[in-house]
Structures are given as structure tokens and as C-alpha cells.
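May I ask for a sample protein chain and its fold as C-alpha cells?
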Amino acid sequence: MESAGEALSRTTSSASESSSEPEYRPKKAKASPAKGTGDSPQVCRRSTRVTRRPSFFKVVHETRADRDMMAAIKRSRIETHGSHTEYQSLVEVPTIYATAEEFKNPITLWTKYSHLGDKYGAVKIIPVAGWRGTCPLDTGSMKFKVREQRLENLGNGKGFSHPNYDWDCERMKAEDLALKLDLFGCEDPTVKEVEAMYWGLVKKGSGQLVVKYAADLNVYSPEFEDSLIDVTGTAAETDVWNMRNLSKCPGSLLRYCDQVIPGVNSPWFYIGMCLTSFCWHTEDNYFGAVNYHHWGAPKVWYVVPARKTSRLEKLLKNYSAHESEEFALYSLRIQVPPDVLIANEIPVYRIVQQENEIVFVWPRAYHSGFNTGFNGNEACNIAPVSWLPIGYKSYIDYKFRRKTCISFYSLVMSGVCNYRDFGAMDLARMIHSLAELICQEFALRSCVPYPQVQMYLHLDSPDAFDVQKFMNEACLQGKMRAKPSCYTLV
């Protein structure tokens, strides 16, 4: 018999070996005997049934609905909920009471107050006592097409349609009156009441209110030939403030444009009713604009000066349901409340334009607004020489985005060739713009190894300035990109 000490020693040794070298030994499953076969184990066979992967359901999205939803999300990020602006508290643009001397030439008046226009984006002009513009159309007899505007859709750029039937002023005036009685309970609501109602409907984004606006009516087109008022032999025929003459007044580069471009050097007419809109936009080619209020209810404007344009353009791109930059910036279909702009640190200035008042809008200033009732306005563009630097920017911006209505190069060249019509400062600006175009042309030509096409610059007025010196300076400005031998003077 072994002693108790030896047994204890053997047990301890066995435990230590077990702890130092653990070994996993799976338990063997006991085979159950098959029925009727004694102790023989049962053979397990794998099922032959095919197991399929679960199907994945593809959800087909509607592009338009997704686009609207994404636009709503982007707008919610931009908008500051709960913010409210008292629109009457917005800073008004300066009002200029023109003197008889200032009123003789629109360009002179424009140039004198350009420091205010640069700051505010626009100014309001009160004409000299006794002057009143002549309406070019007999609005009582004319027929015109209208745009239908759905206020609840102005924020997403889908609030416009163009019915193909004719309207007249009597019908529009009657609908304007019916709308005001329905919404305000009176025939002549205040600007404050209409303004609050307008932005309330735009922000709400729901409802079925549709208003009609006769916009961009080409005054001197064959369509309205029978409605034109003959001003031959009257003071209006030669008046510089006649919109037909204004774009061609002394000092404007548009006076050398032989082509008639409606809305630019030929006026457009606008007939509005209560709550009709013009959405955020700049003028074509970033021109300046002149708008005269002939008759009717006030027109309310909102203006963002050119110095804050980049910030506003970024906001407009994010506010629309459309992904196209061109649509967001140039379609004139997106209306953003001033509250949203102010919440995004974009300054907004306000104008209430009454009868017989003129609004100057500066180049590249964004503007929008609405009509408080039945009214008529006329507008055209203006291009003083001070427009050239911003005009060059429009030339660059439009290159890959949209078509231009008139060549920037042709305006510069026509101004240089008619140098006698301008002062020394204006001529210096034109030379600088021409030098920029030449340098750019040299740079583009130098990128083409073959063929090297000779560039000819024809200036019909060699006595205007030292052309050779000017060309050499232009080439020096672009010497890193082009060679002076690329041009020939003729």
C-alpha cells in the first residue's frame, strides 16, 4: 500500500502538469442505434435543398422629388427659423433731388452720385419740378401676354408659367381690385400691409394664389406698333430721359451699338398688379439700369450692392431646387426673403418707388421686389465708362455660363475709336480695358504652337494718343504670357 504522502505528491504533480499543458478534448457524440439494426449507428445525410440568398429590394427614386427634398434641406440650413424683419426698418437707399443742371444728362447725374451707388447698389432720383415722362404706349388699347406667378413656389424657382392668351389693362385692373378686396378688405391697402402679406405667402410655401404680370414688353416691336404713341415734334422726342434715347445719351458706351437689343438699348415696359414679383437678378452683362415709374401703385425694391454679390450668389445656388448655377443666378425665378439674407450677413437696402420717380441700379447690384397694385414702369440699361471693369468681369463670368447680349470687346473698341466723345479719365479706363483684352488674346494665342496667326489691331484714330507706346505698355503687362511681335498696327 502506498502511503498518504506519496498519494498526495502524485496528485499534486498531476495537477501541475495539467495546468502547464492544457489540452482541449471535444466530447465524442454517442451514435444512437438505428431502429431495427441493433448497435449500428445512424448515418446523417446533408439536405439537398438549395438555400437562396434573401432578395434585396431596389427603391426607384423620383429625381424631381429628391431634388425638391434636398433643396428644402439646404434652405433649412440657410434660413434662421424664428427670425423676423420689420421690412419698413430696412435702410432706404439715398434719395436724390436732381437740380436742373444735373438733370440735363443722365450720365453726369450717375457719375456724380456713383459713390452712393457703389455703397447702396441703387439710388432714387426725384426729377426737377414740372417734368414728367411720357408713356410710350396707349395702354388702354394694347393687348399683351402675361406671366402667371404662383407665390408659394417662388422660393424653389417653379412659380412661373406662360399662358398663350391675350390680356389687356382693363382686365388686369379688375383682377387687381378683386384680389385686394379679397385679401385686405379694401381697395387701397398700405405698402406695409401688402409687404407683410407678400412675404408671408412666399415664406409659407403653400396655397394656390396666382397673380399675373406683364413683364419685358418690347415697346418698339411690331407687336405693339399700333399702340405706340406718336411723340414726333414734341419735347419727348428729344428728351434725354425718354427711355428710347437714354441708353444713347452722351457718355454711354451703348450709344455706339447699332443693333437694337430689347431691354438693353431699347426699353421694356412692365404692367403689374398687386403681389406680382421680380426675383433676384443682375442686369445683362452687369449693366446699370434706369427704371421710371409712369403710373399706378408703388413698386417696392430690395437691393444688394455689388460688394456683397459673391455672398448672395452662394446663397442663391443653395436655395433653389435646381442644380444648375445658370438657373440659380440668371433665370430671374428665385425669390429669397430679406430676412434670410440679413440672417446670412448680407446687407439689404429698400426702395419704395412712387409715380414719376426714377431708380438707378448700379452694375452687378442684385435687386428684387414686388408691386403693391396695378402700375406701369419702363426700363432700359445704361453703360457709362465706369462700367468697364465690371463689364470685363461679366465677360469672364459669362464665358462658360451663358450667352452675352452684346460683345464686351465691341463696346471697348467703339469707345476707343470715338475717343473725342470722352474725357481723359474715361479714355484711360478704356485703354486699360483694351490692354486687358489684348493681353488675354496674346496669352491664348501663345498656347497654340501652330499655326501662329498674326494679330492686327486697327485703330482709326492714330492722333488720339501714342498708339505705339500704348501697345508696348500693353505687351509689357502681358510679357510673361506673350511676345510683343504678336501684333501689327495698321
